[in-house]
Amino acid sequence: MLEGIEVRLSCRYPVAGIDYATLVYSGKLDALFNYKYGRLEYRSLSFVQVPHQLHQHAVNYCDKQVPYTRDVDYRHFGGSVTMREYPVLHTDHNVPMYPVRDHVNLDILAKYQALHTSAIVGGRLGSFRYLDMDKVIAQAIHDAI
Fold first, then answer.
1. Does residue 42 sit in helix, strand or coil?
2. pLDDT per residue as tens digits for the range 38-90
3. With contact defined as beta carbons under 8 Å apart, do 48 and 82 qualify?
4. Going by C-beta distance under 8 Å and a sequence separation of 6 or more, which residues neighbour residue 62?
5. What is the C-alpha separation between 52 and 73, in angstroms, rounded?
6. Cα 141 off chain centre by
7. Which of 21-25, 78-82, 104-108, 122-126 comes out lowest in average pLDDT?
8. What's the rounded Cα separation, in Å, for the pair 40 and 33?
9. Is the peptide bond between 67 and the residue preceding it cis, with omega within 30 degrees of 0?
């Protein structure tokens, strides 16, 4: 499918000396523009292994008094451990997972979206939205047409 198409991963945009016919970007939108208007805020997760097994694949915890959000027993998926997920703020040392879509971040987002780029920007990080994979795939198909 990608025969004859040069693919470069983990590159800073723009890369000097490269002539882009098409650039697909799925990273953080603020990073694409070198944080010109500041950083968009994300939440991340910290994972801790727990000793118990679950009768189901996952248990979500919605009570504000419970400091973790979910237990996932990977034995139901062929794995060998149960992990507990704790919400944490995104830093340069973890993975951005969930955009914080408050008024401050939405104002910053609007400034980035107003900038012109020839890149096709998408995905959870590029659109600064929480998207399930079916929505990301639908977005990619729509943008490709």
1. strand
2. 999 999 999 999 998 999 999 999 999 999 999 999 999 999 999 999 999 99
3. no
4. none
5. 9
6. 18
7. 21-25
8. 12
9. no
Residue type, 133: M
Q: How far apart are CA 111 and CA 37, in angstroms?
A: 7
Please give, one letter per residue, the 3-state secondary structure of the chain: CCCCCCCCCCCCCCCCCCCCCCCEECCCHHHHCCCCCCCCCEEEEEEEEECCCCCCCEEECCCCCCCCCEEEEHHHHCCCCEEEEEEEECCCCCCCCEECCCHHHHHHHHHHHHCCCCCEECHHHHHCCCCCHHHHHHHHHHHHC
Cα 80 versus chain centre, distance:
26
In DSSP terms, which residues pair with 60 in a beta bridge? 70
Q: Is 74 helix (H, G, I), strand (E, B) or coil?
A: helix
Q: Which amino acid is at 42?
A: Y
The identity of residue 68, as a single letter, is Y
CA distance linking residue 134 with residue 34, whole number of Å = 29
In degrees, rounded to 5, the angle at the alpha carbon of residue 126 between the alpha carbons of residues 77 and 115 is: 180
CB atoms within 10 A of CB 10: 5
